[in-house]
Specification:
327 residues, alpha/beta, Rossmann fold, 8-stranded mixed β-sheet
């Protein structure tokens, strides 16, 4: 299938590379308003594809089956809507839109046109997250107790969205994926504007029916952290995405709690099991995401990070943003 890329800025080059090498795709073109960026793209892809500063040229080309959109969130909605209007499938960088209203409009249009819309919640395509998901589904972790995620770095500090919309969107998607897309019961959010006009540091706590989740997001940490802790009643999984090797560690430790006949007392037994590091294939999450998008188009099936998941993520984000701004 023929796919063109719109946006060759921060994330665009990574997406372009993965589109270009995917065996299911004929990567046909790149659009960016910045001529310097287009020049850099041409140095990589030569005359094999076309280059344009006007995305409407891509919309007019009926031979192009889908577009990948990697532009700032404030501009992605209009481009995605234009693409759906002319019957092109859409691969869009996270978040799917800046508001729940816009996200719903995109989803409604995609369903009306019977097209695939795929939001690149890249972490749910990471082999380690998939491994943890399989453990949960098989009951190896037991019942979920909590998920704690930290995602921090020094920059980049964005103007269009805050740290929560930029970073926590990944983690909300992961939580929903691991837990089977549950609705949340309540949440609380806090943030601080340290530089510029957007929150550069945010904390988000979410209560679900049977577990809780905590997410820390920061653009101003001198330490780069990408750490996910998934704790169950049987085992705990810790995913360190910054580690070069051995990214996942499983702790077969915990406590067994039983009621006793004495009022208000519990009998607690500490369980000391093994700590082990499973072997996990070294797959590229973005390539998995791109391949899944193609498979959804070919098989006419909804993406894992399509309408249902994207709207669930946006619902959390919108409620959290209201709390941040005291709306």
């Amino acid at each position: 299938m023929k796919i063109a890329l719109i946006g060759y800025g921060y994330w665009g080059p990574n997406l372009a590379k993965n589109l270009y090498i995917n065996k299911n795709i004929e990567f046909v073109g790149i659009c960016d308003q910045n001529l310097t960026k287009l020049k850099k793209a041409k140095e990589v892809y030569g005359e094999n594809i076309f280059y344009t500063t006007d995305y409407k040229e891509i919309m007019k080309d009926n031979s192009i089956d889908a577009v990948a959109i990697a532009v700032p969130t404030e501009y992605s909605y209009a481009i995605a809507m234009d693409a759906l209007e002319v019957c092109k499938h859409v691969f869009i960088e996270k978040p799917i839109a800046s508001t729940m209203y816009r996200a719903q409009k995109l989803v409604d249009k995609a369903r009306e046109k019977r097209l695939i819309i795929h939001c690149d919640h890249i972490m749910i395509y990471h082999p380690v997250i998939r491994y943890i998901k399989n453990m949960i589904d098989r009951g190896e972790l037991g019942n979920l107790l909590y998920i704690d995620i930290t995602r921090t770095n020094l920059g980049p500090i964005r103007k269009d969205i805050n740290a929560m919309l930029d970073l926590a969107v990944h983690d909300i998607a992961v939580i929903n994926y691991l837990a089977g897309n549950p609705d949340f019961r309540e949440l609380s959010a806090m943030g601080e504007v340290c530089y510029g006009k957007q929150e550069t540091l945010t904390f988000l706590n979410i209560k679900y029916d049977y577990f809780i989740a905590n997410i820390k997001s920061s653009w101003i940490s001198p330490i780069k952290e990408r750490r996910t802790v998934v704790a169950g009643t049987k085992k705990m999984a810790i995913f360190d995405d910054v580690a070069i090797d051995n990214k996942l560690t499983i702790y077969d430790k915990g406590i067994d709690v039983k009621s006793t006949d004495e009022y208000g007392e519990y009998e607690v037994h500490t369980r000391l099991g093994d700590i082990y590091i499973p072997h996990i294939s070294n797959e590229d999450a973005l390539q998995n995401s791109v391949t899944h998008f193609c498979e959804c188009i070919s098989n006419h099936k909804e993406s894992l990070s399509g309408p249902e998941q994207s709207l669930k993520v946006m619902k959390v984000l919108e409620q959290a943003m209201k709390q941040l701004h005291n709306d």
